[in-house]
Amino acid sequence: MSGRRDFLSMPAPENYVAGLGRGATGFTTRSDLGPAREGPSEEQMKEMLAKRAAQLGQAAPSAYGAVDKKDEDEDDDRFQDPDNEVGLFSSGMNYDREDDEADRIYQEVDEKMDKRRRARREAREKKEREEYERNNPKIQQQFADLKRALGSVSEEEWAALPEVGDMTGKTKRAREARMNNRFYAVPDSVIAGSAQAGQLETSISADSGDGTMTNFASIGAAQQSALQVRLDSAASNNAGTQTSVSGTSTTVDPRGYITALEKSQAMGGEAPVEDINRARVLLESAVKTNLQNGPGHVALCRLEELAGKIHTAKKVIARGCELCPHSIVCWIENIRINREQVHNAKIIAANAIKLNPKSIKLWLAAIELEQTVAGRKKVTRQGLDHNPQSVELWKTLINDTEDLENVRLLFAKATETVRLSEELWISYARVSEPENAQQILNAARKAIPTSWAVWIQACRLQEQLGKTELTDRVMERAVKALVKEDAMLKREDWITQAEICEDEGAVLTCSAIIKATLSWKLDEDDERRDVWLQDSKNSIARGKYATARAVLAHCIRVFPTSKTVWHAAADLEKRHGTTEDLLNVLERAVNSCPKSESLWLMYAREAYQFGEVDRARTVLARSFQQLPGNENLYTKAVDFEVDSGRYQEARGFLAMARQSAATDRIFMKSAVLERQLGDLDAALDLTNQAIQTWPGSWKLHAIKGQLYETMSKLKEAQEAYSIGTRAAPKAIHLFLLLSRIQERQGAVVKARSTLDRARQQNPKNPVLLCEAVRLERRAGNVPAAQQLMAVALQECPNSGLLWSEKIMHLEVRTQRKPRALEAIKKVENDPQLFVTVARIFWSERRLEKADTWFTKAILLDADYGDGWVWYYKFLEQHGTEEKKSEVLSKILMAEPKHGEIWQSVAKDPKNAGKGLEDVLKMAVEKAE
Q1: I need a labelling partner for 381 at 20 to 30 A (CA). Which of 66, 153, 228, 431 fits?
Q2: Distance CA 423, CA 849 (A)
Q3: What is the number of other CB atoms lying within 10 angstroms of the CB of residue 726?
Q4: CB burial string 532-555: b at 16+ within 10 A, e below
Q5: SS3 letters for 637-691?
Q6: Contact by Cβ (8 Å): 501, 510
Q7: Is the pLDDT of residue 242 over 50?
Q8: C-beta contacts of 714-719 below 8 A and 24+ residues apart
Q9: Nearest 5°: phi and psi at 330?
């Protein structure tokens, strides 16, 4: 082994200076004690460096001992302190009024530029943020559907979940196991000793021994006794519920437990004695540390009161009042705890007021101790002598006065004394005569020029006097005055005040406030219309319909030709107004926007629904003058005449439409009307004429085929559908009609071929895939249907139609719920799937769950008619009459148009002219 020393234990080289190579010489750290050590001097450094250079055969370095270079100028202006400015900035910053005004102007310009496109910028940022969150979802969002699905897991499924295995350090444990499984040769002595050590005695001595031996007999007897006690205790408590945790038994009375808990909560509960003692020690220490701490005395008093020691609590708070004579909280607490003895409480209140005559709280507490009105007035007047500016004392005195004339006199004195109290001025005006009230409000306005509440009260006064034309003028003056005083409220606060006036019945004042202040801080180039529409929506959400009506009225005055605003106003009146108000709004709307087709149609429809048929016809006649040749207006007029039973007039409208506005829709409407009236030949003739002009209209081919089916000419119908599929290969309904008529004729192979051709023309279409599955299922070929369903779900995994078909018709009853859970994970929001889940719960007699899922379906898509059909069928069996009528009214408002069952009933020519309620009931009977 080498005799060379370790590097760290070797002595340092001669002339070694730690840190010399990196320039860290002569330093002292924080760990050094005593005065700082001096580093080597310059001469010593020169000598050491020269000696080392001589040993290495090199020239001496120039860092020490070389000729000193001329130091660069350290006083260059470039290295001046930036805070010590010279030259141009040596005079400092003289900030005057002009600089302040310039800063303010620049700030206003910046705010205006920022506000100009704020809405669009915020919308863009919101869209970008949502896009980012959608592309980069958080972990909790990724598992949101799984967490939501856990709510439907039953207790049996929870119990069937396997235990999670510990995979941490699996490789390490396997290696340790292999190491432990190794065997080594052991000496015979070790084996013999182990054999002897494993021998056990069959008898145990009952002697306790000298303390060095363990008495196993005593331990066993004690354990047996303890176990017997626990078993006896558990067996004796049969009335309760036994719960064994860590060898203990807890008995809970299920009937008395809740009662005791409610009583404890109602009484505030009783603190444990240990907690009270601990808190007492802490509070006593705090009070002794600071004798003038009033809240500390109050806390200790309440602690003693909580502990039931009322006498001690009174002594504690009395001492607190002595030590803290100017602590209001101590005196208030002392009065409260002695309130049962009114005489003592009055004495305490008198002493407190004598020491603190300016405390309003003490005066109010003393007033509350008085039993008679005269006594209250006496104490109140004494309080006002010491505190004439107290609004609370004036209000107390006025409230205790019954005579109206005396109340007015007190108000006059109060407003003269406290001239800056809005509440006193407004209350004074309310109890005065209208003529005097106007003078009072004028005086209040002069006393408090920045008060907006006074102006609102003045506006309400004009409304009470019936001078409705002055309300707007008063609010206009209010805005000018408040702007001059720089006391103008924000626009949102004015809307809040308008809603308060609406709640109190001052509708005209509410409208005046909105009209005068809604444009505040909004420039003409801002998106005012969108802002005001949002304001109206917010007011409607809060139930303030008069305010929303006033907002929309102002918006209409500014944007009289905006169809969006008129639609919002009409919708408000339709939902929360009267019929006459709705028709009046629509009349103004069509006069302001005569070229708006939607407004004319809405006007005519609402007039017809409210029974004003002549008015609806007049509206349509006027609309024809403004929009000649509009097919929607013609079709609406035809619908009105058909519903009224005036079929000849309907035919006349359609004939006019075919001459002035000839479209495939008009011809289709004409053919449908003739089919409804029974003239199939005329309907077929109209259809053929239309197909020659519009051969690509699949609806015309469908109507032609249906006419042949009605005539029992299935071969011609099949040919019509076949021609239609070639003319409009993207029309899946024609393929469906063709396959179904082929299936009815017994040609299942042809029907299957038709659907295959349709799927080639329209790949990944869930309707066609579902129809192919149903065709196999109706033919009795369930395995082929299941195979097709597997392919369909691979192509359209998010189709609620396919999942519903699979769950209800291709799964056994026990597997429907797991498949529904899997479907919900794939398809988050689909009304058809929600209805299927509701039907599953319905079949399991879980009625509340079923009702919840039916409600989800109709809220998600109110236009889905099958959801309403199944829900109403469910309510016919398990719902009340009130619930059924409520759902029926919602259906009439929603007017659904889609759904397989719903469309099969609503579009049946036999059901033409029937209302929504009749269609619903027939669809309920058809639903299976």
Answers
A1: 431
A2: 53
A3: 10
A4: bbebbebbbeeebbbbbbbbbbbb
A5: HHHHHHHCCCHHHHHHHHHHHHHHCCCHHHHHHHHHHHHHHCCHHHHHHHHHHHH
A6: yes
A7: no
A8: 714/741, 714/744, 714/745, 717/741, 718/742, 718/745
A9: -65, -45
Instruction: Give the pLDDT score at 639.
Output: 81
Q: What is the dihedral of CA 631, 636, 641, 643, to 10 degrees?
A: 140
pLDDT-based confidence at 498, cuts 50/70/90?
very high
519 touches 479 (CB < 8 A)? no
- Judge contact between 382 and 346, C-beta under 8 A: no
768/754 Cα distance (integer angstroms)? 10
- Find, among 270, 332, 268, 345, the residue nearest to 295 by Cα: 332
Dihedral angle at the C-alpha atoms of 865, 869, 870, 872, nearest 10 degrees? 130
Helices (H), 779-915: 782-795, 800-809, 816-826, 831-843, 847-860, 865-878, 881-894, 900-906
Gap between the Cα atoms of 438 and 432, Å rounded: 9
Give the up-direction half-sphere exposure of residue 176: CA atoms within 13 A in the CB hemisphere: 5
Domain boundaries, the chain: 832-928
Instruction: At 473, list the tokens.
Output: 């003028």
Better-predicted residue by pLDDT, 195 or 299: 299
Of the candidates 874, 889, 891, which has an alpha carbon nearest to the alpha carbon of residue 838? 874
Q: Identify whether the C-beta of residue 514 lies closer than 8 Å to the C-beta of residue 547.
A: yes
538-to-363, 469, 531, 533 alpha-carbon distances in Å: 44, 28, 11, 9
Identify residue 154 by its one-letter amino acid code: S
Q: 220-224, 517-521, 529-533, 701-705: which has the minimum mean pLDDT?
A: 220-224
pLDDT tens figures, 721-754: 999 999 999 999 999 999 999 999 888 999 999 9
| Highest mean pLDDT pick, 25-29, 702-706, 890-894 | 702-706
pLDDT in tens, 650-694: 888 888 888 877 888 888 888 888 888 888 888 899 999 999 989
Instruction: Say how far apart CA 165 and CA 105 lie, in whole Å.
Output: 70
Q: Nearest 5 degrees, angle CA 859-CA 863-CA 865?
A: 100
Residues whose CB falls within 8 Å of the CB of residue 569, separated by 6 or more in sequence, listed in order: 549, 552, 553, 556, 585, 589
Say if residue 701 is exposed, middle or buried (CB neighbours under 10 Å; 0-12, 13-18, 19+). buried
Q: CA nearest 738: which of 770, 785, 753, 669?
A: 753
CATH number for the segment(s) 832-928: 1.25.40
- DSSP labels for 199-241? ---S------TTSSS--HHHHHHHHHHHHHHHHHHHHH--SSE
Using the CB atoms, write b or e for 665-683: b if 16+ within 10 Å: bbbbbbbbbbbbbeeeebb
Give the pair of three-digit tokens for residue 702. Answer: 């469908």
Calpha distance 664→697 (Å, rounded): 7
Task: Reply yes or no on whether the pLDDT at 200 is more than 70.
Answer: no
CB 716 within 8 A of CB 723: no
Please check whether residue 312 is in contact with residue 322, taking contact to mean a CB–CB distance below 8 angstroms.
no
Please tell me the pTM assigned to this model: 0.58
**Tens-digit pLDDT profile for residues 88-129:** 444 445 667 788 788 888 888 888 888 777 888 888 888 888
Name residues whose C-beta falls within 8 Å of residue 843's C-beta, 6 or more positions apart in sequence: 813
Percent of the chain with pLDDT over 70: 80
Per-residue confidence (pLDDT) for residue 638, from 0 to 100: 83
- 857-863: long-range pairs with CB below 8 Å, 24+: 857/831, 857/832, 858/831, 858/890, 858/894, 860/829, 860/830, 860/831, 860/834, 861/831, 862/890, 862/894, 862/896, 863/894, 863/896, 863/897, 863/898
Rounded distance, CA 263 to CA 277, Å?
A: 24
